[in-house]
Amino acid sequence: MRKILYVFGMLGLVCACTGVPEFSNIPLISYNNVRVITKEEPGLLNITKKDSVVVSINFQDGDGDLGFTADELAVFKKIYGDSLKTYVIDVFVKKNGKFLESKPKEKFGGDVLFHLKEGSKSGPIEGVLDYSVNFEYGLYQGIPYMTGKNDTLKFAVTIKDRALNVSNKIETNEFVVYKQ
Fold first, then answer.
1. Cα separation of 55 and 60, whole Å?
2. Could you read off the pLDDT of 53-65 as tens digits, one per residue?
3. What pairing do the DSSP bridges indicate for beta strands 47-61 and 98-102?
4. Residue 68 and which of 45, 60, 86, 172 are 20 to 30 A apart at CA?
5. Is residue 95 one of the residues assigned to a domain?
6. Cα dihedral 67, 25, 20, 72 in deg (nearest 10)
7. Burial of 166: CB neighbours in 10 Å, binned 0-12, 13-18, 19+
8. How far apart are CA 108 and CA 151, in angstroms?
9. Is residue 9 one of the residues assigned to a domain?
10. Is the residue at 12 inside a domain?
């Protein structure tokens, strides 16, 4: 009986000693998954079809300065205007078995901001971040190398924190949009 109590006591002590994780203050991301969800919505003249690509990444940040409160967002917008990019996506389109970087007229991700709850504490944080990009069927002309039929893509993603530290770059698995 004493041995059992000793084992449980030691387990309790080990669990109690687990401290706060130590992460770098520069965000670290890793690939989680990518999903393509095809939706049909009523349009002006007919049914509009679009693919919503949901990219999931895992993140860690040592000082927890990802995202903005409403007040911080207003200040950053005054300083950086609408060019502040905290979630950046580079697009690659597969042609003849090779991925070519596509540079759309409007950069994907762009001005996406993380929104934290007011009064969030600073400190190490980690979790999963989902971000969605829409591809409307018929509206692909501004994206180089895309045909609008069974295009195979992959993304490269980076994020920035409030101190403008840039994370590492990750790539998604390949996926198909505009399935015919």
1. 16
2. 999 999 999 988 8
3. unpaired
4. 172
5. yes
6. -30
7. middle
8. 17
9. no
10. no
What's the token pair of residue 21? 């994780």
For the record, the structure tokens of 31 come out as: 């690939």
Report the domain count for the chain.
1
- 27, 49, 17, 34: which is closest to 174 by C-alpha? 34
In the block, residue with structure tokens 């994907």: 108
- Let me know: does 155 contact 131? Beta carbons within 8 Å: no
Identify the domain containing residue 49 by its residue range: 20-177
Rounded Cα distance, 7 and 24, in Å: 35
Strands 47-61 and 125-136, sheet pairing: antiparallel
Cα–Cα distance for residue pair 123/64, rounded to 1 Å = 5
pTM score > 0.85 for this model? no
Does the residue 140 lie in any domain? Answer: yes
Contacts of 103 (CB under 8 A, 6+ apart): 91, 144
As to burial, measured by CB atoms within 10 angstroms (0-12 exposed, 13-18 middle, 19+ buried), residue 176 is: middle
